[in-house]
UniProtKB/TrEMBL annotation:
Catalytic activity reported: alpha-D-glucose 6-phosphate = beta-D-fructose 6-phosphate
Compartments, as annotated in UniProt: Cytoplasm
Pfam family, one: PGI
Main location (coarse class): cytoplasm
Record-stated family: Belongs to the GPI family.
Function: Catalyzes the reversible isomerization of glucose-6-phosphate to fructose-6-phosphate.
InterPro entries: G6P_Isomerase (IPR001672), Phosphoglucose_isomerase_CS (IPR018189), SIS_dom_sf (IPR046348), SIS_PGI_1 (IPR035476), SIS_PGI_2 (IPR035482)
PANTHER family from the UniProt entry: GLUCOSE-6-PHOSPHATE ISOMERASE (PTHR11469:SF1)
Catalytic residue list: E283, K418
Name of the molecule in the record: Glucose-6-phosphate isomerase
Length: 443
């Protein structure tokens, strides 16, 4: 199998010579505790062998639902936030044309509380036949619930209740939560987010697969990539196991004082993979006053904004570059008669070659500047390799969180803002908190 490759040489050179080798027993133990289900948060390990559990029947059912939506909608709005949003968007943005809109158009909502966003979205949809995929594990997330309320009533108004039923799909908990109750009451087609799969690990459940199928992409290939990576991560020895090596090197760097990891790409289509990765690692590791801060950049774009900081700022960072080996198209650097920009020496070269030299030059400059560099190379931006990449990051995250000594599968800190927001908005049941927060603000 051809696969994504990890190169940690330019990061390991910042550590003692045998540091990565010496960590093997610890990494193996961290990985085994995932596999044996003995790690903290072990009731949330449903994602670990998810790829190999996906049957052709499950995929066929998702594809049939996607087909119904595709046939009946000019736009499909995917309502969700965090893990109920980013995985689908990451894959779709990787695979779609940078400029052409998909047919039907895939729109995202429920990931903010912006009045203008919702106003513009509902106005845009007024003249269009649209459907909704309402994704929320809890069914009570404010951002998503708000968008769904607005969109559902608009959809029913535009199509009539009966027709609307055919184009509203819920992806939610098996039993509890508003989304489940509404779906069951209204008879919407629905999918279950398993109890033991947390949002940020759910891209290979219908949370990700349904929107990706609606966008017209090949979910079989995506799952096949993840399945192959599942096999590799389970069987490969330490030195050839990308998930174990990535978990090892980032923890060693963290222990050496590098507490910020910057995920970088050289393809705009990977922007939302950055966003997905940020949630995966941020929510998994940032707790108990510990954790690498996950930051992201799009290059070469951000070399013209963040490049200075990365090159010469505080030396507490390391960089992980996701590099795509093969471009889909060919564009050659053009000739210019006047050559005022002095770039005719590049004439006839593939733009991708120039991009790759920018990448190599940047890697060497950053390493010279004291920034350890990890490189993940992806053969091509296809469903198969994206499936590999996402699953690789998930397993590495589980191992890494165990090495760090946290529970990688909870996110208790996320509740704090919600508690304050509800207190400020006088949510019933929050009377004491409302009183306390008002007193605090009036001091
Ligand atoms: O699917 P839900 O329950 O709406 O939650 C969405 C997101 O909110 C969080 O619970 C907190 O941000 C994430 O972990 C999750 O991915």
């Amino acid at each position: 199998m051809n696969e994504i490759k990890l190169d940690i040489m330019k990061a390991a050179q910042f550590l003692n010579t045998d540091a990565v080798t010496a960590l093997e027993p610890e990494v193996k133990k961290a990985h085994e505790s995932l596999e044996n289900g003995t790690c903290p948060g072990n009731d949330f390990l449903g994602w670990l062998h998810l790829p190999s559990s996906i049957t052709p029947e499950i995929l066929a059912d998702i594809k049939a639902t996607a087909q119904t939506l595709r046939e009946n909608c000019e736009a499909i709005v995917v309502a969700g936030i965090g893990g109920s949003y980013l995985g689908a968007r990451a894959v779709i943005e990787c695979l779609k044309n940078n400029f052409e809109e998909l047919t039907p158009r895939i729109l995202f909502a429920g990931n903010n509380i912006s009045e203008d966003y919702l106003s513009e979205l509902t106005a845009y949809l007024k003249t269009r036949k649209f459907g909704i995929i309402n994704i929320s594990k809890s069914g009570t997330t404010t951002e998503t619930a708000l968008a769904f309320r607005l969109l559902r009533s608009q959809c029913e108004e535009q199509r009539g209740k009966e027709e609307a039923r055919k184009v509203i799909v819920a992806v939610t908990d098996a039993k509890k939560g508003a989304a489940r109750v509404t779906a069951d009451k209204e008879g919407y087609k629905s999918y279950v987010i398993p109890d033991n799969v947390g949002g940020r690990f759910s891209v290979l459940t219908p949370v990700g697969l349904l929107p990706i199928a609606c966008a017209g992409f090949d979910i079989e290939e995506l799952v096949r990539g993840a399945q192959d990576m599942e096999k590799l991560c389970q069987t490969a020895p330490y030195t050839e196991n990308p998930a174990e090596q990535y978990a090892a090197i980032r923890n060693l760097l963290y222990r050496a004082g590098k507490n910020i990891e910057i995920l970088a790409n050289y393809q705009p289509k990977l922007h939302y993979v950055n966003e997905w990765w940020k949630q995966l690692y941020g929510e998994s590791e940032g707790k108990d006053n510990k954790g690498i801060f996950p930051a992201t950049v799009d290059l070469t774009t951000d070399l013209h904004s963040m490049g200075q900081w990365i090159q010469e700022g505080e030396r507490n960072i390391f960089e992980t570059v996701v590099s795509v080996e093969k471009s889909k198209y060919t564009v050659l650097f053009p000739h210019d008669e006047e050559n005022l920009d002095g770039l005719n020496f590049l004439e006839g070269k593939r733009v991708d070659e120039v991009n790759k030299m920018a990448e190599l030059g940047t890697q060497l400059a950053h390493v010279d500047g004291g920034v350890p560099n990890i490189r993940i190379s992806v053969p091509e931006l296809t469903e198969y390799y994206i499936g590999q990449l996402l699953y690789f990051f998930e397993v590495a995250c589980g191992i890494s969180g165990n090495l760090l000594g946290v529970n990688p599968f909870n996110q208790p800190g996320v509740e704090s803002y919600k508690k304050n927001m509800f207190a400020l908005l006088n949510k019933p049941g929050y009377e004491a908190e409302s009183k306390a927060i008002r007193e605090r603000l009036n001091k």
